[in-house]
Amino acid sequence: MLDLARQLPEWFTAGGLEHMAVDFGFQHRRVAVGDDGQMLGFATFIVNEGIGRITWLGVRPDCHRSGIGRALALAIEKELADAGVQAVVVDTLGDSVDYEPYARTRAFYRALGYADQNRVFNDNPEYPEQLTLRKELLSA
Fold first, then answer.
1. 114 to each of 76, 108, 123, how far by Cα in Å?
2. Helices H, strands E: what count in the chain?
3. What does the radius of gyration of the chain's CA atoms come to, in whole angstroms?
4. Cα 47 to the chain's mean position, in Å?
5. Of 68, 42, 67, 46, which is closest to residue 57 (Cα–Cα)?
6. Alpha helix locations (H) across the chain?
7. Helix 68-82 with 100-111: angle, nearest 10 deg
8. pLDDT-based confidence at residue 139 (cuts at 50, 70, 90)
């Protein structure tokens, strides 16, 4: 997963990759694999206090807009809903940052039914606005 994430420098900085290296050791994960056995995408998640949280999601650059990210997110949502989790959240770079890759990220989650829940402004130049998006889940 880290090798694939390194192919996405528009989304994952060196600091982000360091966090991933730790997070991947204990978070739940789902991967999409092509017919040739190559990883096409990954997503990781945790559950904390009854709320699911998608922590990392990445899709190989040549596979963007192919439905892989959507399939990964929906698979996680279904698994969480089946386990009785009521909602899932995801943090991303907020709208106040004019950066096209993350405009696409926000549009992706909003198209899946995620709604703005919270904004936090930070002193971190790599992450000046943290936007939390939330989606209520229907139990199976």
1. 14, 9, 26
2. 4, 6
3. 15
4. 14
5. 42
6. 2-6, 14-23, 68-82, 100-111
7. 50
8. low
> Which distant-in-sequence residues (6+ apart) come within 8 Å of 110 by Cβ?
133
Using the structure block, give the residue that is written with the tokens 């206090």.
49
Q: pTM of the prediction?
A: 0.93
Token duo for residue 106: 């926000």
- Chain-centre distance of CA 98, in angstroms? 19
pLDDT digits (tens, 9 = 90+) for 56-107: 999 999 999 999 999 999 999 999 999 999 999 999 999 998 999 999 999 9
Residue holding tokens 């807009």? 65
The predicted pLDDT at position 75 comes to 97
Q: Which one-letter amino acid corresponds to residue 132?
A: T
CA distance linking residue 121 with residue 127, whole number of Å:
8
What is the phi/psi pair of residue 40, to 5°?
Answer: -100, -30
Task: Specify the pLDDT at position 124.
Answer: 80
Cα 132 from chain centroid?
11
> Do β-strands 115-121 and 39-48 pair in parallel, antiparallel, or remain unpaired?
unpaired
